[in-house]
């Protein structure tokens, strides 16, 4: 792969700091048109910067939405953008966020301290300030402490997955093993993925998780990223803008045995996508109001559908799920109107926990207890659910694992005195 000098003003072919020229391709059309930067990880790695910062910088400069944590190394900017123009912007990024202000050496460390961003030059020792008025500076300041935490949880998740699957890796990225900082995390996270049929859902939930994790972008970046316009057209347009692979994975593809066919999967996707976007723009799923969620579901005409609960279980919680259940209780109660709804809700929960948040698996008993105590899912449905694993929502090993984790709760339920005892169906 041809490389170019990191410093554009240096033409010396022996200049030691090189990077690949940005390679991009435009995909899709109409509202869904987007630019995939194929080798962003490699370029960012050459700059010793997280790819997320680089793509975010592009997003700010172009006023376009980007992703910042793709699990498949597909770095995307909405809209069609020429590689040469992106290369120009990259030059701007390098000048502002990489090169030492004194000696212009690119070997600098980014030090964030006391609300300042400092480039610490390894060549000359100069410490120069990054302009804090730049939007990316705001983004960086907001995202400092996340890293360690995230890495840890990802590692845990990775271990759990590896254990569970014997570590068979597949569907990892697009054939170019990236080597950037956060990218290597992402690539690792794909290791030990689930069986191919469950892979797509897993990928989705992982993305949801990724989106939820980058929540802090948005106090600063809000305007650029997910402006919340709730008109139906706007929502549809936004759903269009999402990467295709995200778009399709939200929901449930099982057959409609119940005549809900009039609502294609895309309607559910719209809801899920909207929730993710709105949560992101509000700085966290906890900040997204029940009423807004309900109104959106209603606007899409699916507030009464059982599958809606599958979407909700996958989107309205994060690591704080146990506490969040009781906060969401009244909305959920309003929307869970039959056993079918309860089962769909449990199914979504199984995906959320089993596929994407394996670190939450030990909390399954608490989660189920909260469902039970908040009267969201009946004893009978819980017992039936616990009685056998199912591949309806996740693949069997995951399903078994979740149920196994549920054991203490199920035992407790078995022994608990309850008025519902007689309606038990096992
Ligand atoms: Zn220097």
From TrEMBL:
The source's domain of life comes to: Eukaryota
Spell out the SUPFAM superfamilies in the cross-references: ARM repeat, Translation initiation factor 2 beta, aIF2beta, N-terminal domain, Zinc-binding domain of translation initiation factor 2 beta
Q: Which family does it belong to?
A: Belongs to the eIF-2-beta/eIF-5 family.
Q: What biological processes does GO assign it?
A: formation of cytoplasmic translation initiation complex
Query: In what residue span(s) does the W2 domain sit?
Result: 261-423
InterPro entries (UniProt xref)? ARM-type_fold, IF2/IF5, Transl_init_fac_IF2/IF5_dom, Transl_init_fac_IF2/IF5_N, Transl_init_fac_IF2/IF5_Zn-bd, W2_domain
Q: Where is the composition biased (Basic residues)?
A: 145-161
Q: Mind telling me what this protein is named?
A: W2 domain-containing protein
